[in-house]
Amino acid sequence: MAQNRSSATTAAAEPAARKLGRPLQRSFFGRSVHEVAPDLIGTTLLVNGIGGIIVEVEAYHHTEPAAHSYRGPTPRNMVMFGPPGFSYVYRSYGIHWCMNFVCEKEGIASAVLIRALEPTHGVAAMRQRRGVDDPRALCSGPGKLCEALAISIKENALPLDQPPIALHARIGKVDVISGVRIGITKAVGLPWRYGLKDSRFLSKRF
Question: For the whole prediction, is pTM greater than 0.85?
Answer without folding.
Answer: yes
